[in-house]
Structure formats: C-alpha cells, structure tokens
Amino acid sequence: MTTHRDPTPPPSPDPGPGPGPGGGPPSAPPEAGAARAACTPAPPDLTGSPFASDTFTSATFVSVGNGPLLSLAGVWVVTRVGMLLLLLRDTLGVGGVGREVYVLYQYWYRQFAHGTFPVNDVTWQYPPGAGLVIMSPGVLPWLTYFQAFVALTLLADAAVTLALARADSDRVTHGAWVWVCGLPLLLHLPLARYDVQATALAVLALLALRSRSTAGHRLGGALAALGALVKVWPVLALIGTPRGRTTRDAWVSAAVTAAALLATLALFFSHSLGFLRQQGSRGIQIESLGGTALSLAGAAGVWPGTVQYRYGAFEYVGPYVSTIGRLALLLTVLACVWLLIWRLRARDWTEATPADAALAAVLLLTVTSRVISPQYMIWLLGLAAVCLTSRRTVMRPVALLLLPAAALSSLAYPVLYDDVLAGTLPGLGVMAVRNALLLAAALLAARRLWTSSVAVGERAE
Question: What residue spans carry the Pro residues bias annotation (predicted)?
C-alpha cells in the first residue's frame, strides 16, 4: 500500500516554559514535568557518524540565524565577483575556459541566425532546446555575445539562489547555502558553460512539484521537459513524483510541452535532431570512471593507449577502449533498470522524495557515463541543494561527498589539466579521488533512496 506522508509534521504539544537559569517554575508538580519531558522531542545526536542523516542539523553548517537573505546575498555577490574576475583573466591552469563561449557558442549562434542547427558538426551533441540557450544572448544586443552570455548565466544563478532561499523556509536546511558556496568550488567554469541554465530548469521543476496544486505539478512537468530539451538529464526530475494525480499531471504536462517545443523548433529551424548522429561515436573521456581505469592501467605499464582530441573532448584511444565503452553503456542500462524497479516498488513518499530520486538518478547515470565533464558537477550541486531544502531528505551525506568532489573537479580542470592529460601522479591522484567520491556518492544515494522509500514501506506492511 502506497503511503503519502504529510510534508509538514504535526506540531509537538507545547511543553510549557523550559527551565531558565534559576530552574523551572516552583509550582510545577513533578508529574507535569514528566509529562512535558515525554512530549518534548529528544535533541538530535550530534556525536554519531557524520554520515547518519539525523546528525545533519543546523549545527552542521553555518547557522543561518537572523537576516538569512541578506547574508546569502552578500556571499553570493562576493563569490560571483570572484568567479567573474577569474573568467575575465582566464589564465588559471591551462586557461581558455571561456573559449567555448566566444568561439564555439558564438559560432553556433551565427548558424542559428541562418535558420539551421549545426550540420555535420561533431561538437554539436545537444538536444534542440540547447539552441534556445545559445541564442539567448541575442536579447541583449548592446553587449557582446560573451558579455551577454555571462550576464544571463549570472541571472540564472541568481534565480536558483532566490528559489532555494524561498524553499529554505525552516532556515536550518541550508540548501541555498550549498548552492551559493558550492558553485564557486568550480571556479569560473560555471560562467562559461550553459549548464547553470539547464540546472535552473531542473531546480525550479523540483520545487514546483512540491506544490499541492495541480498547476504546480503541471508547471514542474513543463519545466522538466524544457530542461530535458536543453540537456536531457532534467527529465529525471520527474522520476520521483508520487504515483497518482501528481505523476499524471506532471508527466502529461511534460509530454505536451516537449512535443510543442520540438514541433516549433522543427518548423523554424532545419536539422533540429541532427545531434543524435553524434552521440553514438563518443569514446571514453579521460575524466570518466572508465578513463581513470585506463589511465591507471597506462601508468602501470599494462595498457599502451594514447590520448586524442575527438568529438570536442580528450578521449582515450587504444585496445579495450571500445570494450570499456560497451561496459559503460551496459552499466547505464542496468542503472535505468534499477531506477525502474525502485519506481515500481517504492511505497513511501515524502516531500523530499522527488528531489532525492532525481539526485540519485543523475548520480548513477553520471558515474556510468563514458563522459564526465567538470560542468556535470553543476547539475549535482543544484540537485543536492534542492534536496537540502527539505528536512525530510535522506541525501545530506551525499551532498557532503559532492562538495570535495566539486573542488577536485576544478583542480583537475583547469588547474592541473596538463597533468591529467599527461597521466602524471598529481593528475592521476586528483582524478582517482574525485571519481571515487562520485562513485561513493552514487552508491550511497541509491542505498538511502531504496531504504527510505522501499524498505520502510515493506517494513510497514
């Protein structure tokens, strides 16, 4: 039997005035004090393992306290100015982080201006909705393309921050803080990729799905569909919607929105689905889990492959690469099967389940992918932040693992990217630890999602 928990727990009985410096009221009888003690919930145990969900309370991170929005806005401004300065200089490590915007994105923008998606371009591997993001700087004609793109990225970032802050109504869940403080761990990379915009659509979709209204569910479905047409993975925001009317409203809205947008793009642009031809040819990117395995084997002298720039990324070429690619594809299929089984067997939903399921799903599909670009961490940080806006989430320890993984991702690119390409000890070490953290986060997320929504339901039955 499927159970739907009320996301707002009933208030505890008023225990009356607690003891002050001078003790409790002298007139209170002993039995009243005992009754109050029985009704008062026990404080969380902060001495246990940091990976126990109930140990993550307001004492775990910086206390929000009074004036949270002002503090949050101040940190956002300071960190984003720092990111912007790094981007304007763009000499950290290998440098050239912004080149993708003012060379590649702007090149595609000119093609869209002629009414066509990129044709026979191996670097164009994105769904047609991505074209809307690439074209969006045109709404700011008084700026250069690069300036307009960065400005719109910062606007999307601010929208995510504001939405998370509003959802953080308890002021002890810290979802907005994870986003504001976690994104700068990737240095200036988020400002030079369109993944912030895709993440914004997924974040807003998950927050809309928490609404008790049909309109909110439909809005969540529409936003998830828009995100999926920008970068596919936001469709996973819908995998954890509770069965029944919520799922029906959200999924129907998503299907209608996707069909309408696809039809519109096909009407006004040619070759809108040309990206499908490029995906199948991808190899093993050096930053993927399979790439790390090959780099370690190469360092041990048991694999003679090399690194080549192919399909817009550095990939490994040599024996067993195709085998590892097929294995990665098989693992992706198995991850999808597991998610389907979870969906069918889940019995216990809370307000946090959709976000928890989305984070677990994206993590599983990320670690089994042939490609793990550093900007993928933007997705994971955004989803983790949504999870942490609810006190019912089970993903707090997963979010804790993602923060050092994000820092190591920026250390790998752009800071030590030459070492990663050359397979030196620092490069190997950074990639091995980063990918180990991602794998641990994926397995932990899957386990906690299962035990919180399947095992709990089975025990209740």
Answer: 8-29
Q: What is the pLDDT of residue 85?
A: 98
* Domain span at 72: 67-460
Contact of 401 with 437, CB cutoff 8 Å:
yes
Terminal Cα-to-Cα distance of the chain (whole angstroms): 7
Q: Omega into 184 within 30° of 0, i.e. cis?
A: no
- Does residue 374 contact residue 100 with C-beta atoms inside 8 Å? no
Best CA proximity match to 90, nearest among 105, 79, 78, 102: 102
Q: Could you tell me whether strands 313-317 and 306-310 are parallel, antiparallel, or unpaired per DSSP bridges? A: antiparallel
Please say whether the beta carbons of 406 and 377 come within 8 A: yes
Q: Are 202 and 227 in contact (CB under 8 A)?
A: yes
Q: Could you write out the DSSP letters of every residue in 264-280?
A: HHHHHSB-TTTTHHHHT
285 contacts 291 by C-beta, under 8 angstroms: yes
Domain contains 84: yes
Residue 356 is assigned to a structural domain of this protein: yes
User: Is residue 54 a part of any domain in this protein?
Assistant: no
Contacts of 260 (CB under 8 A, 6+ apart): none
At 260, which helix (H) or strand (E)? helix 245-268
Q: Which two tokens stand for residue 11?
A: 């208030």
- CA 448, distance to chain mean position in Å, is 17
Is residue 145 one of the residues assigned to a domain? yes
Does residue 328 contact residue 368 with C-beta atoms inside 8 Å? Answer: yes
Reduced to 3 states, what is the DSSP secondary structure of residue 371? coil
| Contact (Cβ atoms closer than 8 angstroms) between residue 316 and residue 306 | yes
When divided into structural domains, the chain yields a total of 1
Q: Output DSSP code: residue 71.
A: H
10-residue mean pLDDT series, the chain (461 residues): 44 41 41 43 38 40 55 95 97 95 94 87 87 96 97 98 86 83 98 97 97 94 97 95 93 97 90 65 87 94 91 89 94 97 93 97 97 96 96 95 98 96 95 98 98 73 55
What length is written for the chain? 461
